[in-house]
Amino acid sequence: MLQPPLASPGRALRDLMRHGVVTLPGVFNAITAKAAHTAGAPALYLTGAGVTNALLGVPDIALLTQTEMAQQAAYVCQIAPIPVVADADTGYGETWNVARATIELERAGLAGIHLEDQISPKRCGHLEGKALIEPSAMAAKLRAAVDSKRDPDFLIIARTDARGVEGLSAAIDRAKLYVGHGADAIFPEGLQSEEEFAAFREGVSVPLLANMTEFGKTPIISVSRFGELGYQMVIFPMTAFRVMLKAVTETYAELLDKGTQADLLDRMRTRAELYALIEYDRYTGQDQAWADATASP
């Protein structure tokens, strides 16, 4: 039900991590956040690619603005009372842009954000042709983010795309530098084997986030296996989005072909199921309760 964000979502996420690896399904708007929470997700990941693709219908190449992402984060955090980590791309600019992004995204109710060390406009972490900023420039961005957060438990997660550009050893070196400049956790992007994930765990002392995306450079690895490898968070950024998009595309094709939705009914959530998910009766009941409380005796 609609409510203010958690008082300290970062602390809630840190508590979850202390008890084992945390699964963060990817969401891209409030209704997907509601569905994931209802399904039992302990935490959520607000995917920058998903928000960009869904909201703008364009590639994830830094066309989404900081204010648009902050607004989506606010929608998600007021409907799903669990910790949410969001993609903050390259920080939407340089150090002062990073500072403002941190302030706005924390104010939206998030548990944390991740910032990446690509040159803007960034590319998907599993594509070729990426380019990186200097390690010192990324360190400055991280210091700007750390200095700008209000809650000390708000997580600043440093993502490095160096594996595909400079190699694994350089990526680990960058991660160590980023930790030294305030990163609470590290997100090594584009790793290509369990052995590489293990090497990152051996080389870095802070919590680690694994990206279990599909159709990329990373083989399919289970959450339990990531836990065995010493990872604290596993995100599934576009899993639900890709399933949804296939279903939507097939639905439109069949509707246009047949001119009726009759054969689609058993693939739908019913009106009653939708209303149950969004708690329609609770809103009606609360509205009536407020009216009754102010009625004249």
Which characteristics define this entry?
single chain; TIM Barrel; eight-stranded parallel β-sheet; 12% strand
Give me the secondary-structure topology:
Layout: H1 9-18, E1 22-27, H2 30-39, E2 44-46, H3 48-56, H4 66-77, E3 84-87, H5 95-107, E4 112-116, H6 135-148, E5 155-160, H7 168-180, E6 185-188, H8 194-203, E7 209-211, H9 223-228, E8 233-236, H10 239-258, H11 271-277, H12 280-293
Parallel strand pairs: 1-2, 1-8, 2-3, 3-4, 4-5, 5-6, 7-8
Describe this structure in words.
- Helix content is 46%, strand content 12%.
- The protein is built from twelve helices and eight strands.
- It is globular.
- Strands 6-5-4-3-2-1-8-7 form an eight-stranded parallel beta sheet, sandwiched between helices.
- Helix 6 links the parallel strand 4 and strand 5 (155-160).
- Helix 7 (168-180) packs parallel to helix 8 (194-203).
- It is an alpha/beta fold.
- It has helices at residues 9-18, 30-39, 48-56, 66-77, 95-107, 135-148, 168-180, 194-203, 223-228, 239-258, 271-277, 280-293; strands at 22-27, 44-46, 84-87, 112-116, 155-160, 185-188, 209-211, 233-236.
- The protein folds into two domains: 9-243, Phosphoenolpyruvate-binding domains (TIM Barrel, Alpha-Beta Barrel); 245-293, no CATH class.
Architecture of the largest domain in CATH?
Answer: Alpha-Beta Barrel
CATH homologous superfamily descriptor of the largest domain: Phosphoenolpyruvate-binding domains
- Category from helices, strands and their pairing: alpha/beta
Distance from N terminus to C terminus (CA atoms, Å) equals 30 Å
Helix content: 40-55%
The percent range for strand residues is 5-15%
Number of domains: 2
CATH fold group of the largest domain: TIM Barrel
- In total, the number of strands is 8
Query: Any low-confidence stretches, pLDDT <50, length ≥5?
Result: none
**Which CATH first-tier class of the largest domain would you pick?**
Alpha Beta
Going across the biggest sheet, name each strand in turn: 6-5-4-3-2-1-8-7
Q: Tell me the radius of gyration.
A: 20 Å
Q: How many separate helices?
A: 12
Question: What shape does the CA trace take?
Answer: globular
